[in-house]
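Review form for a predicted model. The reviewer records the input and the model, then writes brief findings.
Reviewer: anonymous (R2)
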Amino acid sequence: MSLAALRGRTRRSVRMMRSWPLRAGGAIVAGLLLVAATAPLLAPYDPSAQDVFSHSQPPTFAHWLGTDRLGRDTLSRMLYGGRVSLTVSVGAVFFGLATGVAAGLIAGFFGGFLDAAIMRLVDVLLAFPIYLLAIFVIAILGPSPVNTLLAIGVASFPRFARLVRGDTRVQREASYVEAARGIGAGDLRLMFVHVLPNILAPVIVTGSLLIGSAILVEASLSFLGLGLPPPTPAWGLMVSDGLVSILSAPWISIFPGLAITLAVLGFNMLGDGLRDALDPRFGDVR
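Model under review:
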């Protein structure tokens, strides 16, 4: 590793340690992931267990966050709902990232007909709002956790493809790529060993920010009855279930709504902090 590269990595590390949005967002995201992973250990009740004598009960010592209209413990359903909502949202963004990065690399590196064909597909997908595109995919495939993941992933795909394609077109003309080509490196090696590592920073930042959007899309689809089917514990579905009794039992919707807000805030702050640390144009860390 050259001295200049070592200095650049050191500066990035210092910016990451000093960035309070990165620290705060990372702590929120790490806490949510830890709680979701240990939900079976933390949940006081079975999330599907019903107690008809304790329906719509406000927070008590027995049920810390109250119960819903069917007598199910809100805290237990929120903990399990975090597993489902975060798994679907993060998985969807990773699906969109993997397919978008591959398509963007191919389009930007080879150009020509492949570039035109891939980018016209991207243009068509970008013409639809992300919610409408996700609803369209769900209408074709039907509501289920896997189909919701695919729907949000398809809606995320064009963002990554266009970003990677633009950066790849710049990097393919760089001197280090020409030098690697001159010593016999093939196209696949040039794309994945030389070009890809140099365009990952904006991809990581975009991915972390899109996870927050994916959580909102998943919650919205579940709220509308187009996402995860009942009785699956999901935050958006819990908000929808409590809507009919929002005046008499507001805790049924408020607590999962706060969980959605916290998750989106955490991923947005994490993405903002990563942008400050990884993008050399942002030298002043807030």
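Findings: The CA atoms of residues 88 and 149 lie 5 Å apart.
Further findings: Residues 11-278 form a domain with the MetI-like fold fold (CATH 1.10.3720.10).
Recommendation: see findings above.
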